[in-house]
Amino acid sequence: MKVSEYLILLIFIIVFIGSLSLGIWQIDRGYDKKALENTFSQRQSLPVETNPGELNQNLYYRNIQISGIFGKKNFFVDNKTFNGKAGYVVFSPFTLADSKKILVSIGWIESDQRDSLPELSLPQTNLKLDGMIRPFSKDFVLEDQAKQIANNFIIQGLDKELMEDLSGYKFLPYVFELSALSNLSLEPIWRPTSLKSTRHFGYAIQWFALALVVLFGGYYLFRKKQST
């Protein structure tokens, strides 16, 4: 075989193994998402827990009620679009009955302004909030920029350490998603997964199909070369 033929063979092998590996990875991702979807559905079907006690991972996605008071410093997470419109997702510190603090996701609010913020008025009295807790996942941003307007901060993504530095508070490692039924809720846009498990399985089939095309295509070319 010539050097060029070895090179072509190597490319076929790399593409075949790469496609197969990506297909297996998508299958794994699909099963992970399926497990999360099942957990979310099962816990959402449970009755509201009005006395959840200490917040922990066992309460993820469970409808609960917490008591406390909102702080005066709010975070507006930038670059969040909904239905093709620009806006912010608003998070507000909330001091619980045990004096611990958690960030409450109020929801999305439309705004195309970057030098001013939409009006947001949260009661400064003791409240009971319905919603659920979820993991505090850090958003990917190119740089941690922050801009302060009055008592509010515009940030580029959800970042616990940055939000603690700006506010001077220490937050629990969870986010409390305010119930859409609350009269304080803005537009609720958070979802437990950004991509459904069925989509991952569909992508896996595409990668496996590509691997088969490469396999049979390579075999056909090899046989054709042998017959000449």
Structural class: alpha+beta
List segments where confidence is low: pLDDT < 50 over at least 5 consecutive residues: none
Give the integer mean of the pLDDT values. 86
| Strand adjacency order, main sheet | 1-3-4-8-5
| Number of separate structural domains | 2
C-alpha end-to-end distance: 13 Å
Indicate the overall shape.
elongated
Write structural notes for this entry.
The chain has 228 residues and is an alpha+beta fold. It has two domains: 1-61 and 192-228; 70-178, no CATH class. Helices cover 36% and strands 28% of the residues. It contains three helices and eight strands, in the order H-E-E-E-E-E-E-E-H-E-H. The protein has a five-stranded mixed barrel. Strand 2 (74-82) and strand 3 (85-96) form a beta hairpin. The longest helix has 42 residues, at 3-44. The radius of gyration is 25 Å and the shape is elongated. It starts with a helix and ends with a helix. The mean pLDDT is 86.
Main attributes of the structure:
elongated; five-stranded mixed barrel; alpha+beta; 228 residues; 3 helices
